Amino acid sequence: MSRRAVIEQAKGVFMERYGVGEEGAFARLVALSQSTNVKLVQIATDVVARSGGATGAENGRSNWIDRALDAFGEPAVVVSPIPTERGSVADFQIDHVNRAAVRWIGRPRDRMLRATTASIYPSAKASVLINVCRRALATGTLVGAPWPVADDETQADADQRRPVRVHAARVSTVVLVTWQVLSGRVTE
């Protein structure tokens, strides 16, 4: 497929996904390219591939990344940035979820796919996740942070729970997020 064709197809995906016009879609592609320092054609190719435009979807699970993520023992998701008109990242859309994440988060896969991180997690966890993903996307380095204890969790619950760390790494124009349960107990 030619560069122009893939960019046009990516604009169509953004127009449908974000409800913007052709110029708005192109502006978002350009802003994402500039904020990640990745060529526009590569961003467009990734957008088209993740949208299922290049291949047919098989219950939303036709992409090789889903099968690879399912091999992880720990919860893992792939998220893509949702850029604002000015190019900053407002939130992240969940593109892929492995089986461990489905069990850990406790929501059906189809309710998580295409949802935003802010809509899946309470405010404290969403804030940590969005910030970790933003830093990984901006720097291209592995970023980790402690995962917050739930607001409604009692100290007795926290004492029985092992601490968890969230890790994020940029892979091209998306971010791979994993959660790692650490040995030991929470001592907060």
Tell me the strand order in the biggest sheet. Answer: 2-1-5-4-3
- Counted up, domains total 2
Q: Determine the strand fraction and express it as a percent band.
A: 15-25%
The value of Rg in angstroms is 17 Å
Give me the secondary-structure category. alpha+beta
> What's the CATH first level of the largest domain?
Alpha Beta
Total strand segments:
5
CATH topology term of the largest domain: Beta-Lactamase
Oligomeric state of this protein: single chain
**Main β sheet profile:** 5 strands, antiparallel
Characterization of the model:
- The chain has nine helices and five strands; from the N terminus they run ααααββααααβαββ.
- It is an alpha+beta fold and 188 residues long.
- The protein folds into two domains: 3-51, Orthogonal Bundle (Arc Repressor Mutant, subunit A); 64-181, Beta-Lactamase.
- A five-stranded antiparallel beta sheet has the order 2-1-5-4-3, with helices on both faces.
- β4 and β5 form a beta hairpin.
- α1 packs across α2 (22-36) and α1 (3-18) crosses α3.
- GO terms for molecular function: RNA binding.
- It comes from Cryptosporangium phraense.
- Residues 1-48 form the ANTAR domain.
- InterPro entries: ANTAR (IPR005561), CheY-like_superfamily (IPR011006), PAS-like_dom_sf (IPR035965), WH-like_DNA-bd_sf (IPR036388).
